[in-house]
């Protein structure tokens, strides 16, 4: 497969979970991939090795997306390694669920700084590398933006903000050949879902019972749609919020 041949992509937060899967799928389709990570160097290097062992091209680049100087460095290293950028996947995010009584300034700002401000920083830098040829941005949102859950008020607010960015920027980029879309996963089995105790729980069973396709999603389910959005096959799609949840609109 070579739907992304000759394209360069940055995937933020790609050391595990959905981001890691997207990075591997992009590479399998011919893209040169920058695997960004904040703290898990080992995880990112594992993803890179899996890609290169199969003949793909990838590098791992550390950078906390909520830190503007870190983001600038990630894009500088991308330019030094590959010269250009075609696709940006804003996947890095933090998932904090807590009762409203427990929301603090610290957790609020952490959520918005990573999930929203970090996306803005990355988009700003991507525009410099896209240049006149244009580019493609995929924001990894969540079904929680459509249907917030109890204790998820702040997290859901960050994802709703992300979707608003997607729609607004699709119009702001008019005439610049830059596409931007949101991808909204439903419940997905990731390392984080396992460590949170969700996988195998009654809560998971409850979500599955409400899902028309009758199962928990896998990272591959999201990655396949991300490949489509990154490819020329979706060249007439921008400003969209695409839910990938097995048939559940939101939750």
UniProtKB/TrEMBL annotation:
Family, per entry: Belongs to the short-chain dehydrogenases/reductases (SDR) family.
NCBIfam families documented for this protein: PRK07231.1
Species for this entry: Flavobacterium endoglycinae
Pfam families assigned to the protein according to its UniProt record, in alphabetical order: adh_short_C2
Gene3D superfamilies: NAD(P)-binding Rossmann-like Domain
PANTHER family per record: OXIDOREDUCTASE, SHORT-CHAIN DEHYDROGENASE/REDUCTASE FAMILY (AFU_ORTHOLOGUE AFUA_5G02870), SHORT-CHAIN DEHYDROGENASE_REDUCTASE FAMILY PROTEIN
Protein name: Glucose 1-dehydrogenase
InterPro entries: NAD(P)-bd_dom_sf, Sc_DH/Rdtase_CS, SDR_fam
Broad EC category: oxidoreductase
Signal peptide stretch: none
PROSITE patterns: ADH_SHORT
Top-level taxon of origin: Bacteria
Keywords: Oxidoreductase
Record EC number: 1.1.1.47
Phylogenetic classification of the source organism: Bacteria, Pseudomonadati, Bacteroidota, Flavobacteriia, Flavobacteriales
GO MF term (any one): glucose 1-dehydrogenase [NAD(P)+] activity
């Amino acid at each position: 497969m070579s739907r992304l041949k000759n394209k360069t992509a940055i995937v933020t937060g790609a050391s595990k979970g959905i981001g890691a899967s997207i990075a591997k799928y992009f590479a399998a389709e011919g893209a040169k991939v920058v695997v960004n990570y904040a703290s898990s160097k080992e995880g990112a290097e594992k993803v890179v090795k899996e890609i290169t062992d199969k003949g793909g091209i990838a590098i791992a680049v550390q950078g906390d997306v909520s830190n503007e100087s870190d983001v600038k460095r990630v894009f500088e290293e991308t330019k030094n390694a590959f010269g250009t950028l075609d696709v940006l996947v804003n996947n890095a995010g933090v998932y904090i669920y807590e009762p409203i009584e427990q929301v603090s300034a610290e957790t609020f700002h952490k959520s918005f700084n990573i999930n929203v401000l970090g996306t803005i920083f990355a988009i700003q830098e991507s525009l410099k590398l896209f240049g006149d040829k244009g580019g493609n941005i995929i924001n990894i949102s969540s079904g929680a933006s459509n249907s917030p859950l109890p204790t998820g008020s702040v997290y859901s607010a960050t994802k709703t903000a992300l979707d608003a960015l997607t729609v607004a920027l699709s119009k702001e980029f008019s005439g610049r050949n830059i596409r931007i879309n949101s991808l909204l996963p439903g419940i997905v089995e990731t390392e984080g879902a396992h460590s949170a105790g969700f996988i195998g729980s009654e809560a998971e069973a409850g979500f599955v019972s409400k899902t028309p396709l009758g199962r928990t999603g896998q990272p591959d389910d999201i990655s396949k749609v991300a490949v489509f959005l990154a490819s020329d096959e979706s060249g007439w799609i921008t400003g969209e919020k695409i839910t990938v949840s097995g048939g559940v609109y939101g939750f």
